[in-house]
Design goal:
heterodimer, A: mainly alpha, B: mainly alpha, two-stranded antiparallel ribbon, 22 helices, globular
C-alpha cells in the first residue's frame, strides 16, 4: 500500500499554509510556490518510476470509503494512459509558476500563487481519480482557480472571457453530473448496492441498456467536448486564451484541455460501448472538421496568441480523431498527441508571452525582424513551431502520424478511413502553412526601430524553456518507451469500447 | 410528565425569549446590547443540547406531538440557524438603533414555532406551529418603524401570509371532512384506502399545496418574497430567507409527503412542474437584478425549486426526503451566510448593496469577501462545497423517480444561477474599488461568524457523510 498519489493531492494543499503565513512578503510567497510545485514535480517523477511498464491495470491504487451511505469512495490509481499526463501537468505547473515569479505577475502575487496551487490539485486529481464522484470534484476544482486567473490577472476583456469560459464549461459539466447520477442509479446490482468506482462500473456496464447509453454518453461527451474543445463548442477558447495571463494560457492549453480527451478515454469509452457506436459518425466528422477548420482559421488570425489558440483546436481535433477511430494506433497516437500538445503548445504560449512582455505587441503586423536581435529566442521558438507543425524527429510528428495511421485503417463510419484519413492529413499541411507563415512574419524582415534595444531571453526564461525543449526532442526521437507505457492500458480501453461483452478486473 | 419532557427544547427556547425580554427591560442599554446576544446564544446552545436529550421516539400529548429522528433533525436545524442569525446581528442592530431585545426575542419565538412544526403529528399542532413561526416574522419585517420600505415589506408579507394561512386552514377543513380526523396517521390510512377517488380530495390537496406553497415561496405563490426580503433589515432578511423556508418544507414533508403521502404518486407530476417553474422563474428574474439583496431574494426562490424537485420525487422513497433535509440544511447555511455578508455594507436605507458597491470588496475586506465567495460557489453548486453535495443528493431521487427531464432542468438552471452568482465574484475580485463605494462596517464579530460558517460549508462539502447519514435517518419516519 503506497500513498504517493494522495501525496500528490496533498502537497499543493500543504503549500497553501506557508503561502498564507508569508502572504505579505512577495519574495517568500514566490519561493514557497516554486518550492511546492518543484516538490510536486519530483514526487510525480518518483511516482512514474514506481509504475510497472507493461501492465494494463490500475497501479498504485488507494481506496478508502468516503461517503459510505452512498457507496462513494476516495479511489485513486494510475494506468498507462494517465501515468504520463501527471508528470506533464506538474512540469507545466512548475514552469508556469517559475515564469510568473519572474515579474510577469505584478499585482496580488499571493492570490495568484494560491490560485495556481489550487488549480494544480484539480489538474492532478482529474488524472488520478477512479471514482466518478471524485473525478467530478477535481474536474470542477480546475474551474474556479482558472476563472480567477483569467478574470483577475487577464487582459482588457478578461471579464467577458472568463465568464464565457466558466459558463460554457459549467453547462457541460452539470449535464455530466446528471449523467453521473444516472450511471450511479443504473449501477445497482441485485442487492441494490450502488457504486461510482470505475472498475466496478465496468463490471456493471452489462446492465446499461443501449438506449440508456445513448443519452448518458451524450451527457458525458458534451462535458468533455466543451472542455477539449471540439467544434462547435470551441468559441470560448480563443477568448479565454487571448485574455489569460501567460501562465494561465500555458496550463489552460497544456493541461485543462487534456481533461476532456482523458475523460473520453477513461470513462466515456469503457463505460458506454453502445453509446460510442451510436455517436461515432458525428464525432469523427466533428474531429476532422476541427482539424481543417482550426487550421484555416489559424491562418487568417492577426493576433499571435489567437493563432496559437486556434491551432489548439486543430491539434485537439487530432486527439479526438485518434480516440474515436477505436484502434490501438489511433488511441496511442491520441495520448501521445495530448502529451505533445501539452509541451509544445504550452511552450508556444510561453514564447508568445515572453515576446509580449518585451514588445507589448501581439498583432502579427506590428512585429517583425525579431530574429536579428534575439538569436536564442528564435532558436527555441523555431524548434517549437517545427514541432507543432509535425516535423519528423520532433514530437508532433509521432502523435499525428499514429493518429493518421489509425484513421486509414478504420472502417466504422460512412465513407471509411480512406476518405477521412487524407482529409485529416491536409490539416498537417495547413499547419505548416500557417505556422511557417506566422514565423516568417514575426521573426524575419527588417528590424523595427522600436524593438532594437530589447534584450534576448533572460536566464529565467531559458530555464523555463529548456525542459519543454528536452521533452519535445526526447518524445520525437525516442517515442518507443512512452508508447510501451501507454499501449497495454490503451489496448484494454479499445477492447472495452468495441466489444460490449468484454469485462476486465482492472484494479490490482 | 413524560409529555412535558418531550417538549423541553421548545420550553427552553421560550424561557430564553422571556428572559431576553425581561433583561432588555431591566438592564442598562449599553450593557443590554452587550449581554443580550450572549444570553440568547447560550440559551439556544442549551436548547440544542436538549434536542439530543433522550426522550424515546413516539407519540406524546395524546398523539398531538411526535418525537422521532425527523423532529430532532429539524429542531437542530432551526436552532443552528437562529444561533447564526443572532451571532451576525449585534453590530447592525446597534448601528440602526433597532431594539435588540425585541429582535432577539422575535427570532426566538419564531424558532419555537418552527420547532413546533417539526414535532407535529396532527394538523392542529402543525397549524399552531406555522402561525407561531410566521407572526413574529411579520413583526421582524417591519421592525424599523420609520423606514417606509420596511413598512411596505411587513404589510405585504402580512396580508399575503394571512391569506395563505386561510387557504391552508380551509384545506385542512376539507381534509378533516374527508377523513373525519386531524391526526396524520388516521388521515394517511383513510387516503391510502380511497386514493384520489373524488373531487373533494383534490380540492383539499390543492388548497393545502397552495397554502404551503405561499409559505415556502413556490412560484406562482412567491410574489411577496422579493419585497419582504428586500425591505426588511438585512439580519432579519438573512433569518427570514432560511428559517421560515426550512419550516415550510418541514410542514410540506409532514403533510404532503407524510400524511397525504398515499396521493403522492398522482400529485408528484404537479409538484415536479411547479419545481421546474419555480427554479427557472427565480433564476431568470435574479439574472436581471442589480441589487445584490434582491438578487439573493430571487435566488432563494430558485433554491425552493430545487428542494421542491426532491419533494416531487418522493416516490423514490427515503432518498427523496433525505435529499430535502440535506438541501434544507445546506441552503440554510449558505444562504444565511450570503445575506449576512451584506452586513458589511453600511448603507443608508436598508436596501442592501448594488453590484457597483461590491467593487473591490475582495481587497477591502479579504476575509469577508472570501466567505461570500465560498457561499456563492456553494449556492452555485460547485465542489468542494456543501451546495454541490446537496445538488448531487437532489438529482439522485429525481432521476430515480423517472423525472430525467427535471434533472436536466436543474442542471441548466445551475448554469443560469452561476452567471449571476459569479457576477458578484467578478465585482469583488476583478474590479478596483471605485471612489463612491460605501464605507464598510467595522465588524470583527461578523467576520468571525462568517469564517466559521464558510468553513462549515467547505468541511461539510468535503466530508458530508455523517450529515447525509443523519438526514437519511431523519427521513425514515416519513416512509411508511
Amino acid at each position: 500500500m503506497t500513498h504517493v498519489l494522495s501525496l500528490l493531492v496533498v502537497i499543493p494543499l500543504a503549500g497553501l499554509i506557508p503561502l498564507f503565513l508569508f502572504r505579505r512578503d512577495e519574495r517568500a510567497v514566490k519561493q514557497v510556490a516554486i518550492t511546492t510545485t518543484a516538490v510536486e514535480l519530483a514526487v510525480s517523477l518518483w511516482m512514474l518510476s514506481q509504475f510497472h511498464v507493461g501492465e494494463a491495470g490500475f497501479q498504485l491504487t488507494e481506496r478508502v470509503d468516503w461517503l459510505p451511505s452512498l457507496g462513494i469512495t476516495y479511489f485513486l490509481g494510475v494506468d498507462g494512459i494517465s501515468v504520463l499526463l501527471v508528470p506533464m501537468t506538474t512540469l507545466l505547473t512548475f514552469i508556469s509558476v517559475l515564469y510568473s515569479s519572474g515579474g510577469a505577475i505584478k499585482t496580488r502575487v499571493t492570490e495568484f500563487m494560491a490560485s495556481f496551487l489550487l488549480l494544480e490539485i484539480g489538474m492532478v486529481g482529474v488524472f488520478i481519480a477512479l471514482d466518478l464522484f471524485l473525478f467530478y470534484v477535481f474536474f470542477e476544482l480546475m474551474l474556479l482557480p482558472m476563472y480567477l486567473i483569467i478574470g483577475v490577472w487577464g487582459g482588457p476583456r478578461r471579464i467577458y472571457s472568463t465568464l464565457k469560459f466558466v459558463l460554457f464549461t459549467l453547462a457541460g459539466s452539470l449535464l455530466m453530473l446528471v449523467g453521473i447520477v444516472a450511471v450511479y442509479l443504473a449501477s445497482a446490482d441485485a442487492s441494490g448496492a450502488r457504486t461510482l468506482s470505475l472498475p466496478d462500473l465496468i463490471e456493471a456496464r452489462g446492465r446499461f441498456s443501449a438506449d440508456f447509453q445513448f443519452w448518458v454518453f451524450l451527457a458525458f461527451a458534451l462535458a468533455f467536448a466543451i472542455k477539449m474543445p471540439m467544434v462547435p463548442f470551441h468559441t470560448w477558447l480563443p477568448d479565454a486564451h487571448v485574455e489569460a495571463p501567460t501562465a494561465g494560457s500555458v496550463v489552460l492549453a497544456g493541461v485543462l484541455l487534456k481533461a476532456g480527451g482523458y475523460g473520453f478515454l477513461r470513462f466515456a469509452l469503457p463505460l458506454f460501448p453502445f453509446g460510442v457506436q451510436a455517436w461515432l459518425p458525428l464525432l469523427i466528422l466533428l474531429s476532422v472538421v476541427a482539424i481543417v477548420y482550426g487550421a484555416i482559421v489559424s491562418a487568417v488570425q492577426k493576433d499571435l496568441k489567437k493563432l496559437v489558440a486556434y491551432s489548439s483546436v486543430a491539434h485537439m481535433g487530432f486527439v479526438t480523431l485518434g480516440i474515436f477511430v477505436l484502434n490501438l494506433q489511433g488511441g496511442v497516437g491520441a495520448v501521445l498527441q495530448m502529451l505533445n500538445h501539452g509541451f509544445v503548445t504550452g511552450a508556444l504560449f510561453l514564447f508568445v508571452g515572453i515576446q509580449y512582455e518585451k514588445t507589448h505587441r501581439r498583432q502579427i503586423a506590428d512585429l517583425g525582424g525579431l530574429a536579428n536581435m534575439w538569436p536564442l529566442y528564435t532558436t527555441f521558438f523555431g524548434v517549437f513551431v517545427l514541432a507543432s507543425l509535425g516535423l519528423p524527429g520532433l514530437n508532433g510528428f509521432v502523435g499525428e502520424f499514429l493518429v493518421l495511421l489509425g484513421t486509414f485503417r478504420f472502417s466504422g463510419v460512412p465513407l471509411g478511413g480512406l476518405f477521412w484519413g487524407p482529409l485529416a492529413a491536409t490539416g498537417v499541411i495547413l499547419a505548416a502553412v500557417y505556422l511557417l507563415w506566422m514565423f516568417q512574419r514575426v521573426m524575419y524582415g527588417p528590424v523595427r526601430e522600436a524593438y532594437k534595444l530589447l534584450p534576448d531571453m533572460t536566464p529565467l526564461e531559458v530555464a523555463c524553456a529548456v525542459p519543454l525543449l528536452a521533452m519535445t526532442v526526447i518524445l520525437g526521437v525516442a517515442p518507443q518507451p512512452f508508447i510501451s507505457i501507454i499501449e497495454p492500458s490503451l489496448d484494454q480501453v479499445v477492447r472495452l469500447a468495441t466489444d460490449p461483452s468484454f469485462t476486465v478486473l482492472a484494479a490490482r | 410528565m413524560n409529555d412535558v419532557a418531550a417538549v423541553y427544547p421548545e420550553i427552553l427556547v421560550t424561557v430564553v425569549a422571556v428572559v431576553v425580554l425581561m433583561a432588555d427591560a431591566t438592564l442598562e442599554r449599553r450593557l443590554a446590547a452587550l449581554l443580550l446576544p450572549v444570553i440568547t446564544i447560550a440559551g439556544l446552545v442549551a436548547a440544542l443540547a436538549s434536542v439530543f436529550y433522550v426522550v424515546p421516539a413516539g407519540q406524546y400529548f395524546r398523539g398531538f406531538v411526535t418525537i422521532d429522528a425527523f423532529t430532532s433533525f429539524f429542531r437542530a436545524v432551526f436552532i443552528l440557524l437562529a444561533i447564526f442569525a443572532v451571532a451576525v446581528s449585534p453590530a447592525y442592530l446597534a448601528r440602526r438603533a433597532v431594539p435588540p431585545g425585541e429582535f432577539y426575542a422575535i427570532i426566538l419565538f419564531s424558532t419555537v414555532g418552527a420547532m413546533t412544526i417539526a414535532l407535529s403529528a396532527d394538523l392542529i399542532t402543525l397549524f399552531i406551529g406555522l402561525e407561531t413561526m410566521t407572526i413574529p416574522i411579520y413583526v421582524l419585517a417591519g421592525i424599523q418603524r420609520s423606514d417606509r420600505f420596511a413598512n411596505e415589506a411587513a404589510l405585504k408579507y402580512f396580508l399575503l401570509g394571512a391569506f395563505s394561512s386561510a387557504l391552508l386552514l380551509y384545506g385542512f377543513a376539507w381534509l378533516y371532512g374527508i377523513t373525519k380526523s386531524t391526526d396524520f396517521a388516521t388521515i394517511t390510512g383513510v387516503l391510502a384506502a380511497q386514493g384520489v377517488a373524488n373531487g373533494q380530495t383534490i380540492v383539499a390537496l390543492g388548497l393545502v399545496t397552495v397554502g404551503l406553497g405561499f409559505k415556502a415561496a413556490i412560484v406562482p405563490f412567491h410574489q411577496w418574497t422579493p419585497d419582504a426580503y428586500d425591505g426588511a433589515p438585512t439580519p432579519a432578511t438573512a433569518f427570514m430567507s432560511v428559517g421560515p423556508k426550512a419550516a415550510a418544507f418541514a410542514a410540506i414533508l409532514r403533510v404532503l409527503v407524510g400524511a397525504m403521502g398515499p396521493l403522492g404518486v398522482d400529485w408528484g407530476a404537479v409538484l415536479a412542474i411547479l419545481a421546474a417553474v419555480t427554479m427557472t422563474a427565480g433564476n431568470v428574474v435574479a439574472l436581471a437584478q442589480t441589487n445584490v439583496k434582491r438578487m439573493l431574494a430571487y435566488s432563494s426562490i430558485a433554491h425552493t425549486g430545487y428542494i421542491l424537485a426532491a419533494v416531487a420525487a418522493s416516490k423514490a422513497g427515503a432518498s427523496a426526503s433525505a435529499a430535502v433535509l440535506f438541501y434544507v440544511f445546506a441552503y440554510g447555511l449558505m444562504n444565511l451566510g450570503a445575506f449576512a455578508c451584506l452586513l458589511y455594507f453600511d448603507l443608508e436605507g436598508t436596501r442592501g448593496a448594488t453590484l457597483e458597491d461590491l467593487n473591490g470588496f475582495g481587497r477591502r475586506e479579504p476575509a469577508g469577501a472570501l466567505a461570500l465567495f465560498i457561499f456563492l460557489i456553494s449556492l452555485t453548486g460547485i465542489p468542494p462545497t456543501i451546495g454541490f453535495v446537496a445538488k448531487f443528493v437532489v438529482i439522485q431521487p429525481v432521476l430515480d423517480a423517472g423525472l430525467a427531464w427535471l434533472a436536466v432542468v436543474i442542471a441548466l438552471n445551475a448554469v443560469l444561477a452561476a452567471f449571476y452568482y459569479l457576477r458578484v465574484v467578478v465585482r469583488m475580485y476583478m474590479y478596483d474599488p471605485s471612489e463612491k463605494v460605501p464605507r464598510l462596517a467595522n465588524t470583527g464579530a461578523l467576520s468571525a461568524g462568517l469564517t466559521v460558517a464558510s468553513l462549515a460549508v467547505l468541511v461539510l462539502g468535503i466530508l458530508p457523510n455523517s450529515l447525509y447519514e443523519w438526514a437519511r435517518q431523519a427521513a425514515l419516519p416519513l416512509v411508511r
